[in-house]
Amino acid sequence: MGAAARTAAVSLMRYDIFSTLSKVGGRAVCGLDERNLEGLHIPLEGPIRGEIVLTNTGSCISARGHLQVALQMECARCLRPVVVKLDIDVNEECTLSQIDDLHILTADQVPVLDDTIVDLSELVRQMIELHAPWRVLCSEDCKGLCPRCGANLNFEQCQCSKDEIDPRLAALKHLAER
Fold first, then answer.
1. What CA–CA distance (Å, rounded) separates 116 from 68?
2. Fewest beta carbons within 10 Å, which of 34, 104, 110, 163?
3. Residue 136 domain flag
């Protein structure tokens, strides 16, 4: 691997890019094997793995690559833990004028710290949050929890009376009798 494409060491998803991206066509290959990501609202089941290639195109820095991550989520019906595996393609750009004027950067752009270090953690965090499902099930036929006693109906039959009406809805009972 030449000077134009070199793998940077992982350190909190910060990579020294000055030498590789200073010229048009310069590339920095950033390998990811991160076990913690600050600000991520979903617990990780394992490390974030992948590779993001940063390329100076002359007018912007492009970030292209692939991420693999396993998330620890809860079943929407029974609240049991569910591991969700994601494969995410990364395809983002940041114009050089945005990099030069750091005060106008928005959260989805690739931030450059002290002129030589790029921080990919926010980009990776947003990609994971964006691609994570908002609702998962442990199985398609999950029966969920009993709304009265909280029993997991996948494993046990609750003893709650099925005829009992929620007192908040009792006034509507007469509509069902018609």
1. 27
2. 163
3. no
